[in-house]
Write a structure and sequence with these properties.
By secondary structure, this protein is of the alpha/beta class. Helix content is 43%, strand content 20%. Bound molecules: adenosine-5'-diphosphate and guanosine-5'-monophosphate.
Amino acid sequence: MHTPDTLHRRGLMFILSSPSGTGKTTISRLLLDADDELCLSVSVTTRPMRPGEVDGKDYIFVDQPTFDHMVEEEHFLEWAHVFGHSYGTPKAQVKAGLREGQDFLFDIDWQGTQQLYQKLETDVVRVFLLPPSIDELRRRLTGRGTDSAEVITARMERARAEISHWDGYDYVVVNDDIDECFAKVKEVLHAERMKRARQTGLIGFVRGLMKD
Ligand code: ADP
Ligand code: 5GP
């Protein structure tokens, strides 16, 4: 006998985007640690690995010819060029997982978000994080210590363009205080899981209620 908590539901695609440096990697890690039903959709990229990153966990790191071959073989749900490198979302794991009720977290940019939304609109939940100010964004990028001054300047320039895509998202959260931002993003995830259309086991459950 199913209880409302064990009913089958279709997984969702939880997309977290933000201007680089706002905190989406930080929020993503907190979410993944806190939530067993959520796993990261690991993207493929041609960019060099950063200190502390693990191949296969943070990204699948490949060279450009390998990436181009994967594009030709239609290996990706979406792909894009960002900061001079290629990034793509592998298709197979996500499609199978969604059917089984697995939720996926996507740390992708607005171009990827648009492509996923066009393909799988009803599975997609789009969340955009904004920095509390441009000065704070620069402080975070500098404080992270992973990029050269040149890369930080490029990321700041791009940040303004990225901010302009705020209206292509379902939810927008300002990441000022990290705990508050995390709590709000979790609320969105929990509420989206209860959407009737995702709860594919509900119809049988309700029929049972009406029979008893
Ligand atoms: P993104 O993935 O969006 O590029 P990160 O998660 O790497 O950003 O965060 C950039 C830097 O800002 C990191 O050093 C992180 O610890 C810091 N950071 C993230 N959120 C906050 C916050 N709410 N307040 C202060 N610093 C933050
Ligand atoms: P970073 O190199 O800082 O990890 O990521 C740079 C940008 O690429 C971020 O905005 C990130 O969200 C985006 N990104 C990462 N993976 C993908 C992907 O698979 N597809 C798309 N479209 N963007 C991605």
